[in-house]
């Protein structure tokens, strides 16, 4: 007679909850605009393309961890008229953000990005070795 392992049941419950809550990973961060992206599967890598017109390269922040790519961009804009005691002075802050769940593990250290003419392209090579184990020598 085999005994039930309550920890396995709890683990399965958490996996189901993560799958169900995973649909909310692509929701925008409050106070920001949603950034539209294209995700392409290029056999050995994923390619993410995003239009970010008007942003400088320094305004964009990218990070990837645990099959999740995060793109954020912020810029300040100001308009001034007159001199001295100004009659009009306006300031705006534009920000966009997107968190994207990747369908497979990627080589985080090998990821690279280019930003040309307002188009951000991120290349994320797929992980080739999913086995994190290593061989142990016997003395």
Structure description:
- With 139 residues, the chain is mainly beta.
- It contains one helix and eight strands; from the N terminus they run αββββββββ.
- It has a four-stranded mixed β-sheet, with no helix packed on it. Strands 2-3-8-7 form a four-stranded antiparallel β-sheet, with no helix packed on it.
- A hairpin with a 3-residue loop joins strand 2 (37-41) and strand 3.
- InterPro entries: A-crystallin/Hsp20_dom (IPR002068), HSP20-like_chaperone (IPR008978), Small_HSP (IPR031107).
- Residues 73-111 are annotated as: Disordered.
- It comes from Halococcus saccharolyticus DSM 5350.
- Belongs to the small heat shock protein (HSP20) family.
Can you give me a brief rundown of this structure?
With 139 residues, the protein is mostly beta strands. Helices cover 12% and strands 43% of the residues. The chain is elongated.
């Amino acid at each position: 007679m085999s005994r039930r392992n309550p920890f396995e049941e709890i683990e399965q419950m958490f996996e189901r909850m993560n799958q169900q809550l995973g649909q909310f990973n692509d929701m925008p961060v409050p106070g920001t605009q949603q950034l539209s992206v294209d995700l392409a599967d290029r056999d050995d890598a994923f390619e993410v393309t995003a239009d970010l017109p008007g942003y400088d390269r320094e305004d964009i922040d990218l990070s990837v961890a645990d099959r999740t790519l995060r793109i954020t961009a912020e810029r300040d804009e100001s308009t001034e008229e007159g001199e001295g005691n100004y009659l009009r002075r306006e300031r705006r802050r534009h920000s966009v953000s997107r968190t994207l769940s990747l369908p497979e593990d990627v080589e985080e250290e090998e990821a690279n990005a280019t930003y040309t003419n307002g188009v951000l392209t991120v290349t994320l090579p797929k992980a080739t070795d999913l086995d994190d184990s290593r061989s142990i020598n016997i003395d």
